[in-house]
Amino acid sequence: METQDPAVVEAINASGESTLEKAAAKAKKTLDQLINVSLNIAVTGNTGSGKSTFVNALRGLGVNDVGAAPTGVTETTKEATMYEHPGMPNVKIWDLPGTGSPNLKAKKYLKGVKFNTYDFFIILTSERFTENDIMLAKEIKKQKKLFYFVRSKIDNDIREEGNKKGFDEQKVLSIIKEDCQKNLREVGDPKVFLISSVVLEKYDFENLQKALAEELPEHKRSALLQAWPVCSTECLEKKIKMFEGLIWAASFASAGLAVVPLPGLSAGCDLGMVVLFLTRCYYSFGLDEGSLTRLSEKVNKPHLKDLAKSKFVVAIREKALTRLQVSTALATIATVECLFSLVPVVGSVAAAGISFGTTQYLLREGLNDLADTARKIRKEAGLDAILNLQSLRI
């Protein structure tokens, strides 16, 4: 080791590198993936396929929430519209005009699509995929971009078929998927995901996330998982594991061992990383008031919001601003003081003298607190129990 300072040695060991310089470089790269790496998702498809509703679902918003994409029975998207994820500003979801709009001819549509803007495309339909959808997929393929076919409004199909004699949900889903795949043979053997933007817990919504994670570049996966709605216990646990793996890097930067040039963050703003890290966890786990309100209404359990009163949840909610940006998070110094006061070992440490071990301890305490709260809320909501029961009946 280049130094015998115990705190520095501990930090280097945590990074898995051999020197402080290598550890600092790895910390910077890791935190860039957490905060700075952009992810641009394009949602397109036939007019009336539920694109705007799907965009809102990806952002964890309901149709009546502030900032939600407008929805309607008529064409509502006239031009490409960008929507930031409310808790992850580096994730942007683009609502593109419908490919089948009478106001937008296919060839003209393709000329207007800025393919390099987007990391991948989701082509949505609520019925059969059209010639325009296939043409768009072929062009995306030429541009060497990823694309995925999503059959939306599956809950409506199941509801309509449910009253028929001999109804078999699994059989209906298989028929719909096979029909879509047959319809898309011109573009090879594409995967088709059946989803409901209203009931994310069912059907293929999580399978879509898995497929994206497998095919996206490694540095984009963190942004995807952070922003993806918590649609199952498995999804929540993936998020928790991801943040656990990032604690060392956040501690490294917070302790002032690495200069990490992030927007609004200088080497002297070490404590801001603590706020930023835990606030990201807070939004990613769905613990913000908007997410909890929607979940409570969905399962008709108003008391769920009362379960989100752990010490770290309350500290972040009361002190952090609702719109998460690095610069604003750093401005909420009261949040840092509040968080530090929650852990006796940390609270006694002067801000200027914070060490790697101290920061790591605080982040672990905070992450565990937020994770346990999220688990408790999901269990009380009973979503997984309902899904398990339904799967046994199929």
TrEMBL record:
Annotated IRG-type G domain residues: 37-215
User: Is Amino-acid biosynthesis among this UniProt entry's keywords?
Assistant: no
Q: Which UniProt keywords apply?
A: GTP-binding, Hydrolase, Nucleotide-binding
> Which GO terms of the cellular component aspect does the record hold?
membrane
InterPro entries associated with the record: G_IRG_dom, Immunity-related_GTPase-like, IRG, P-loop_NTPase
Which PANTHER family is this protein grouped with?
Answer: INTERFERON-INDUCIBLE GTPASE (PTHR32341), INTERFERON-INDUCIBLE GTPASE 5 (PTHR32341:SF10)
Q: Does the keyword GTP-binding apply?
A: yes
- The superkingdom listed in its UniProt entry is Eukaryota
Query: What is the protein name stated in its UniProt record?
Result: IRG-type G domain-containing protein
One GO molecular function term of this record is: GTP binding
Similarity field? Belongs to the TRAFAC class dynamin-like GTPase superfamily. IRG family.
